[in-house]
Structures are given as structure tokens and as C-alpha cells.
């Protein structure tokens, strides 16, 4: 006879797919890294510092909240890293560091912890942080520095080190001085909306022209997003329906009055639409779990974005569109519950259903 | 997904593709296991009313002799799996948890494999439907795929129901990872299966039979195809190898495109389903007038040195089977059934019953050191896209954690969940969804009583 073995008792299923939350989050971080690298390459030292400060603010807030709740470790911190990385990409790199810190703390504290932490946050935390600084510091958030300027890796932008709670120096004069090209500080969206001046599409798509760089190029985001979609860590239905709705609505308007409205390709490639569609609307926690729901959610965001952009007082609407989408998610889910297997046939009383 | 399934479309929606781990045993012919010194034959090893013992303590029984009689229509008789002496009739541990009454037989050392008791019917060819149903009950047949529901009950025409069964679906899917017992039966006993199908067709009144085999078992498909050449009423079909293809509802959907309403039986769409293993036994036992005394069990997993398929007398304790298969572990998890739906047994003395299609042993190396950390639901939707019943396990899980068991049942169709485990398998947050649903169902049914 053999030794008396120690028998384990577990509940079925006894096997599990290899992916877990941590590996998914790690892949999302990986997918955002190239975009982050681009951001640093374009804007240099100030961008590095801003990223570092926002990361630190997010991670520290996350730890603090976990500690206050008596939890051991917050999700290997990946989720806070994602929030920080996305947050940085939505603000100009000339943002004073202290405002970056405020944005990070608000994102985690108000956007996430307030609702109960990971999994319970109704809104995308990065966007909550971003919306807060947009309201609090509109000038700093809406003025973009020139990209690719000489000496960006040896000197800081004049606003970066602004002391907390002071108004930072206006960067326009400095911008004009260092910019290699015509520079206005306005975003392509603002140029189009208020001055009817359209930035060439290729510039937006590939992000090659320093004067117009106000966000990651659409192409790069597309590639990084596709990586996640192919690894099934991102629901492709969401970005696709955001883009489809935005293109359809703006396309119709453009056909109706081409001189007043931008063409759909411009709408798709400018501003934060790409980043929002691929990396922020797709945040799993805030988007519906049902397939139909995901499509409705995407379409809703696309439509609202275009409406805000073309008819609202602001130049960019993606952020608010996604926040609204987040708020509508429970409702969308409620109305798109999957139909249980066989329920279609239930009315026949379960009899004689031979097809 | 096999190319074939894409073209033929014979599959169901959702489901998962876990690693199959079938190679270790699929090529191993069925080996007969010796008799253990002692057999434990539980009276309640099938669904329905437990059988009533008809032997006394100390009575001699021969292999194949009836030892318990059915306690009604939804019940079957039991037969002595080996020649020996009834040592006792008492409570013994079962795989499903609580102890239950069992007939314990001390096996004679000289017990032979020959079946010494039978009552062959003299008019099998002329038997009426009712007589065949009775003959199938006499053979003690239950669903050997795991459900262990008495086969004859499914075949009989309920008096209050005019729905005619038109198709017998023969389940050769065997979608659980590791298990290859049905695969081996299809390869080694195709003639018994065909004979069984002919009897079953007459008993249930169906005009045709369809054998559904997952497309990872093409050899079995070819063998059966060859054997049904002269039987135009029997079709052999490949279905996609995907879990849980072997679930009744999924297999019927894949083969016939019919969807069974929640709470309804296959009969409601004109179908009865039987497992290939059950039909092989039927084809062998009914013509000879014998009763079910053994079954084929896949023994596999990292914890056994000689994985394979064994013909095991009903009532053989796991300890005996595992020793034959080379289990020497000190720390192990022992699963009766497959890794997706099987359940762990606490004692090595737990006997093999009719419904046990496999014994899996995971030892130290395969067992995770620590319990996996459970994260909150991140609404990733993986479970929603895996659930073959189109439920919303994410929502069900959140409701369960909030204790809202009634809402789960009333609004989110908890009762349609058959605990296949797809949702828990894919959940990246390691939420024990199936466990939560089991608890919810138990609490609801207690409240309902
Ligand atoms: S266990 Fe239930 S809820 Fe989960 S996938 Fe299977 S049927 Fe759906
Ligand atoms: S798989 Fe798990 S984490 Fe994902 S939605 Fe379902 S329950 Fe939530």
C-alpha cells in the first residue's frame, strides 16, 4: 500500500485559461508604450518629467487608497499605470508639473477610489482627471507647445516648473521663438473650427509635421490598438463603431455643406478621437459587456463627439462623449441583455419544435 | 476550429477551446482491470429513486446476478460486478459528497471474468416498444456520459405527451479535456454501438439516428461510417471540437439546428440523446439478457504513471484503479469526471459508479501552490462570450456577490446555467462563478421548498 496521500478538494472547473487580469493589464501597458515613446521623442525633457510626475501621483494615490482600506497590494499597480499613461497623452506636454500631479490624484481618487476601486469605477479614471484639469486650468490645457524644437532634450518648456497655484508663463512667445515652422499654439481642431484652416490629412495621420503635433498620430494609435484587438484584450467593436458613427455623421454634414464642415477623414484623424476610440472608450470597466451593447456604446460616443465638435462651444468632444457613454453603460446593458439559449422557442411551450 | 466545421457549420455558438490533453490516452486500447478485493455498489448511483437491495448480508452472489431491484419506473436494477459474498449493506462515501447506502461485496479470489447469470430474451426481433423499454431497464442502463439518468425513461413515451421523437442523437462528442473513453469505445466496439442504436431506435420510436463526433476523432468517424454502411437510417456526422459540444442542448443545436427552450427536455424538439458508451453497452447487454456491471474509465493526469483506458467493474474503489494506473503521489487532487465539470473526491475509497467517465489525478507539480487571487469583475465580457447558454455570468456573478439570488433567477435565467464552467474558465479575475451559481441555486431551491 502507499502512504496516505493528502487530498486536495477544489470546485470545478479545475482548469483555467492562461490570461488573468494582470497579464491583460500588462499588455495594455505594452501597447501604450510606443505612443508614450513618440510623445517623449516629440517633446523631450518636459514630457519625460510630466510623465514621471503623473505616474508617481497615480501610483501613490492608488497605494494610499489601498492602504487606507487595508488591502494588501493594488493589482500590481498596472491599472494605475495605464491611467497615468493615458492621462499624459490627453494633455499638452507643457502642462505645469503640479497640474499634472493634481490630474493624477483626481483621476485615481475621484475617478476610481471614490466609486469603490477597480471594477467599480463608472467613468474612465484618466478622463475624470483630464476633465478636472480642463475645467480648472483651461488655458494651460488648451495651449500646445511646438513639437520637435531644438534643444528639447536639454531644456525645459517655460511652463513646466511653474510653482503650484501660480499662473504659468504664457508659452506662446517662447513657442514662436523655438518653433522651426509656423506655430500658433492652437490645435488643428481649433484652426479648423475658428479659422477654417485645415491641416493636411497626412500630417495628422503620420504626425510628421512639428507645427501641428497636438496628439499622437492616428497611424501609431491604430497599430497599437490593433495589437490589443488581435490579442483579444480589446473589443474591436467599440473603436470601429466610434469611428463608423463619427465618419458617417460628419460625412453626411460634409456632403451637405463641404465649405462649412470638415471632411470625415479629418474628423477621424484629428484631436483625441483615435486615442479615445481605441484606448479610452475600450476601458472594459466602463463599457457594456454585451456585444450589441458595445456597438451601441461606440456609436453613441462617435455621434456625441461629432456633435460637440461641430456644434458645441468646444473644439474637442471625445472626452465628454466617452464620459457620457460610461454613464449610459448600465442602461445600455440593461436593454441589450443576451437572449438565453432556447428562449426564442419558449413560447411554443417547448413542444413539437421539430424544425 | 476545423475547416470541416466551418464549411458544414455543425457547431453551436460561444463555448471555449481548452487544451485537450487527450494524446496521452487516446491511443491506448481499453485494458481490463482485475477485480479489487472489495466492491462498493451504491444504491443511488443514478438519478431517480435508489434501487432496493434484494440480497442479504452474508449471501453468495455470482458475477452478473441481480443484487438490487428498481424502486419504481425512474430507477434501475443493480447487478453483482464480481462473484463473492455480500459483506454488508451500509453507508459509504460517494463522489457527490454525502454518504449513501451501498452493497459491499467481498470478491472471491478465484472470481472469473465470465458472466455467470443471464436471461436472454428469445424474441428480441419481435419485441414491442414497451417490451424493449422494459428490457433496457432490466439491463440497468443509465447515461454513461456522466448524467447517469435511466436510459429507458428517456425512450418511453410519456402518457401525457403526444410529441413524437423523430431522431435519436448519439453523443460521441466527448468534449471534456483528458477523457478518451468514448473515443476508445467507438474504435473498439463499433458493432455493439450499431446494435445498440437499432434497439434504441425501436424503443424510442425514432426513424433515424445521428452520431455526432467531434472533428478531433476522425478515426472514430471513419470506423463508424464503415459500420453503418448498410444502415441507411444511421448517419455519422462530425461536429466542431469545442467545449461543451457534448452537452445535450449544444449537440442537438449543432446536428439539427434545434434549440431546446429553457427547462424543456430534448423530447420537446423530437429528440432523445444517448451516449455512445451507453449504446455500446445496450448492444451488448440487451440481446444477452445481462445487466450493467462494468464501464470504461479514462485514468489520466500528471499524477498517474500509466494513464490509459480501463474497463472497471462498477463499485471499484478509486484507490484500486489508481494503483493499477501508477499513482504514488503524496499530495494530489482526484477528479471524478473531466476537468471542466468533474468533481473532486475526498476519499480514495470512493467507488467508481456508472456515471464516472474518467479519473484525473493532479499531483504536486500540477497543483497551483496558492489559491489564485480573486480580483473584482472588470467587465471584460469574456464570460458573456463564452457562455453556451447565452447568459450574462458577469452580471450573475455580481448579483451573487450582492446576495441577490432571486434577481439572478427571475431576471437573468440562473436556472438555465448547467454549470459547464466556460465562464469561470475564461474569467481573468479568477472569480469562482460556477461555485457562486451553485450556491445561489441551492439557496433559491431551499427557499422555494
Ligand atoms: S457555467 Fe453556467 S453561466 Fe457559466 S458558462 Fe456555463 S452555462 Fe453559462
Ligand atoms: S470574465 Fe470575469 S472579469 Fe470578465 S466580465 Fe466575466 S466575471 Fe467579469
Which shape of chain A, going by the Cα principal axes?
Answer: globular
Q: What is the oligomer described by this structure?
A: heterodimer
- What sort of overall outline of chain B do the alpha carbons produce when their principal axes are compared? globular
Number of strands of chain A: 1
What percent of the residues of chain B sit in helical stretches (DSSP H or I)? 25-40%
Order of strands across the widest beta sheet of chain B?
Answer: 1-14-13-17-15-16
Strand content of chain A: under 5%
- Strand fraction of chain B equals 15-25%
Number of strands of chain B: 17
The CATH topology name of one domain in chain B reads: Rossmann fold
Q: How far apart are the termini of chain B? A: 44 Å
The CATH architecture of one domain in chain B is 3-Layer(aba) Sandwich
Helical coverage of chain A, percent range: 55-70%
Structural class of chain A: mainly alpha
Spans of chain A of at least 5 consecutive residues whose pLDDT stays below 50 are 348-355
Span between N and C termini of chain A?
58 Å
What is the chain-wise order of helices and strands of chain A? EHHHHHHHHHHHHHHH
What is the C-alpha radius of gyration of chain B, as a whole number of Å? 22 Å
Greatest contact pair? A-B, 53 and 77 residues
Sheet of most strands of chain A = none
Short recap of the structure:
The complex is a heterodimer of chains A (355) and B (449). With 355 residues, chain A is an all-alpha fold.
Q: What this model shows, in words?
A:
The complex is a heterodimer of chains A (about 350) and B (about 450). Chain A has helices spanning about 20-45, 45-70, 80-90, 95-110, 125-135, 140, 170-180, 190-195, 200-205, 220-230, 235-255, 265-270, 275-280, 290-310, 320-335, and one strand at about 5-10. Chain A has about 350 residues and is mostly helical. Chain A has two domains: about 20-170, no CATH class; about 185-335, no CATH class. Among the domains of chain B are: about 5-30 and about 120-290, Rossmann fold, CATH 3.40.50.11540; about 370-449, Alpha-helical ferredoxin (Fumarate Reductase Iron-sulfur Protein, Chain B, domain 2). Chain B has helices spanning about 5-10, 25, 130-140, 150-155, 180-190, 190-205, 220-225, 250-255, 275-290, 320-325, 380-385, 395-400, 405-410, 420-425, 435-449, and strands at about 30, 40, 50-55, 60, 65-70, 80, 85-95, 95-105, 165-170, 210-215, 235-240, 270-275, 295-300, 310-315, 330-335, 345, 360-365. Chain B has a six-stranded mixed β-sheet with strand order 1-14-13-17-15-16, with helices on both faces. A four-stranded antiparallel β-sheet of chain B has the order 2-8-7-4, with no helix packed on it. Chain B has a four-stranded parallel β-sheet with strand order 11-10-9-12, with helices on both faces. In chain B, helix 3 (about 130-140) packs across helix 6 (about 190-205), helix 6 (about 190-205) packs across helix 9 (about 275-290) and helix 12 packs across helix 15 (about 435-449). At the A-B interface, strand 1 and helix 1 of A face strand 15, strand 16, helix 14 and helix 15 of B. Strand 1 (about 5-10) of chain A pairs parallel with strand 15 of chain B, so a sheet runs across the interface. The complex binds iron/sulfur cluster (2 copies). One iron/sulfur cluster binds near residues 380, 381 and 429 of chain B.
Amino acid at each position: 500500500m502507499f502512504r496516505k496521500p493528502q487530498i486536495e478538494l477544489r470546485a470545478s472547473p479545475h482548469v483555467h485559461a492562461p490570461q488573468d487580469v494582470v497579464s491583460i493589464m500588462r499588455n495594455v501597458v505594452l501597447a501604450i508604450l510606443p505612443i508614450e515613446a513618440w510623445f517623449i521623442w516629440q517633446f523631450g525633457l518636459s514630457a519625460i518629467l510630466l510623465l514621471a510626475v503623473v505616474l508617481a501621483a497615480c501610483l501613490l494615490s492608488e497605494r494610499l487608497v489601498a492602504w487606507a482600506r487595508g488591502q494588501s497590494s493594488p493589482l500590481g499597480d498596472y491599472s494605475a499605470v495605464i491611467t497615468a499613461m493615458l492621462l499624459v497623452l490627453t494633455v499638452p506636454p507643457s502642462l505645469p508639473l503640479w497640474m499634472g500631479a493634481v490630474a493624477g490624484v483626481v483621476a485615481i481618487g475621484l475617478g476610481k477610489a471614490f466609486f469603490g476601486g477597480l471594477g467599480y469605477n463608472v467613468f474612465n479614471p484618466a478622463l475624470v482627471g483630464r476633465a478636472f484639469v480642463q475645467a480648472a486650468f483651461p488655458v494651460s490645457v488648451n495651449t500646445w507647445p511646438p513639437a520637435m524644437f531644438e534643444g528639447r532634450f536639454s531644456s525645459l518648456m517655460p511652463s513646466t516648473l511653474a510653482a503650484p497655484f501660480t499662473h504659468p508663463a504664457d508659452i506662446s512667445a517662447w513657442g514662436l521663438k523655438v518653433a522651426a515652422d509656423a506655430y500658433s499654439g492652437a490645435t488643428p481642431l481649433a484652426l479648423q473650427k475658428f479659422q477654417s484652416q485645415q491641416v493636411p490629412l497626412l500630417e495628422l495621420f503620420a504626425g510628421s509635421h512639428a507645427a501641428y503635433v497636438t496628439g499622437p498620430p492616428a497611424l501609431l494609435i491604430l497599430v497599437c490598438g490593433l495589437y490589443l484587438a488581435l490579442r483579444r484584450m480589446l473589443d474591436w467593436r467599440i473603436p470601429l463603431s466610434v469611428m463608423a458613427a463619427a465618419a458617417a455623421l460628419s460625412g453626411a454634414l460634409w456632403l451637405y455643406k463641404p465649405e462649412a464642415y470638415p471632411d470625415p477623414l479629418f474628423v477621424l484623424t484629428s484631436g483625441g478621437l483615435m486615442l479615445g476610440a481605441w484606448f479610452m472608450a475600450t476601458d472594459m470597466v466602463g463599457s457594456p459587456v454585451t456585444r450589441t451593447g458595445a456597438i451601441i456604446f461606440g456609436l453613441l460616443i462617435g455621434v456625441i463627439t461629432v456633435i460637440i465638435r461641430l456644434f458645441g462651444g468646444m473644439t474637442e468632444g471625445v472626452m465628454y462623449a466617452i464620459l457620457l457613454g460610461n454613464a449610459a453603460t448600465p442602461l445600455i446593458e440593461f436593454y441589450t441583455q443576451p437572449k438565453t439559449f432556447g428562449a426564442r422557442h419558449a413560447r411554443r411551450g417547448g413542444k413539437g419544435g421539430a424544425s | 476550429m476545423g475547416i470541416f466545421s466551418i464549411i458544414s457549420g455543425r457547431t453551436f455558438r460561444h463555448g471555449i477551446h481548452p487544451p485537450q490533453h487527450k494524446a496521452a490516452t487516446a491511443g491506448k486500447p481499453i485494458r481490463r482491470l482485475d477485480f479489487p478485493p472489495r466492491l462498493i455498489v451504491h444504491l443511488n448511483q443514478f438519478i431517480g429513486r435508489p434501487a432496493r437491495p434484494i440480497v442479504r448480508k452474508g449471501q453468495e452472489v455470482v458475477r452478473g446476478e441481480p443484487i438490487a431491484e428498481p424502486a419504481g419506473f425512474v430507477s434501475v436494477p443493480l447487478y453483482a460486478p464480481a462473484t463473492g459474498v455480500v459483506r454488508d449493506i451500509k453507508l459509504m462515501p460517494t463522489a457527490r459528497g454525502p454518504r449513501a447506502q451501498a452493497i459491499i461485496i467481498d470478491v472471491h479470489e478465484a472470481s472469473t471474468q465470465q458472466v455467470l447469470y443471464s436471461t436472454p430474451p428469445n424474441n428480441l426481433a419481435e419485441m414491442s416498444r414497451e417490451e424493449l423499454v422494459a428490457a433496457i431497464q432490466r439491463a440497468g442502463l443509465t447515461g454513461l456520459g456522466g448524467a447517469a439518468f435511466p436510459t429507458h425513461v428517456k425512450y418511453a413515451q410519456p402518457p401525457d405527451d403526444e410529441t413524437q421523437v423523430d431522431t435519436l442523437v448519439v453523443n460521441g462528442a466527448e468534449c471534456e479535456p483528458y477523457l478518451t473513453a468514448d473515443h476508445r469505445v467507438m474504435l473498439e466496439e463499433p458493432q455493439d454501438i450499431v446494435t445498440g442504436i437499432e434497439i434504441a431506435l425501436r424503443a424510442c420510436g425514432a426513424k433515424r439516428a445521428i452520431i455526432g463526433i467531434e472533428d478531433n476523432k476522425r478515426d472514430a468517424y471513419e470506423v463508424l461510417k464503415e459500420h453503418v454502411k448498410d444502415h441507411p437510417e444511421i448517419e455519422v456526422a462530425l461536429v466542431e471540437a469545442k467545449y461543451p459540444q457534448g452537452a445535450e442542448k449544444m449537440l442537438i443545436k449543432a446536428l439539427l439546428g434545434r434549440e431546446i427552450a429553457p427547462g424543456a427536455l430534448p423530447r420537446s424538439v423530437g429528440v432523445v440523446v444517448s451516449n455512445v458508451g451507453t449504446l455500446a453497452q445496450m448492444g451488448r447487454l440487451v440481446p444477452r439478457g445481462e445487466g450493467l456491471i462494468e464501464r470504461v474509465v479514462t485514468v489520466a493526469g500528471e499524477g498517474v504513471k500509466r494513464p490509459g483506458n480501463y474497463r472497471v467493474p462498477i463499485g471499484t474503489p478509486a484507490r484500486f484503479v489508481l494503483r493499477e494506473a501508477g499513482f504514488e503521489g503524496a499530495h494530489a487532487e482526484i477528479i471524478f469526471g473531466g476537468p471542466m465539470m468533474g468533481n473532486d473526491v475526498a476519499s480514495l475509497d470512493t467507488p467508481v459508479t456508472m456515471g464516472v467517465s474518467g479519473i484525473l489525478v493532479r499531483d504536486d507539480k500540477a497543483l497551483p501552490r496558492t489559491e489564485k487571487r480573486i480580483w473584482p469583475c472588470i467587465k471584460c465580457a469574456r464570460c458573456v462570450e463564452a457562455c453556451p447558454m447565452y447568459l450574462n455570468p458577469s452580471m450573475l456573478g455580481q448579483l451573487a456577490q450582492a446576495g441577490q439570488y432571486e434577481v439572478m433567477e427571475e431576471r437573468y435565467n440562473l436556472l438555465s446555467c448547467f454549470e459547464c464552467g466556460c465562464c469561470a474558465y475564461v474569467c481573468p479575475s479568477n472569480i469562482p462563478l460556477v461555485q457562486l451559481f451553485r450556491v445561489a441555486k441551492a439557496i433559491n431551491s431551499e427557499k422555494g421548498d
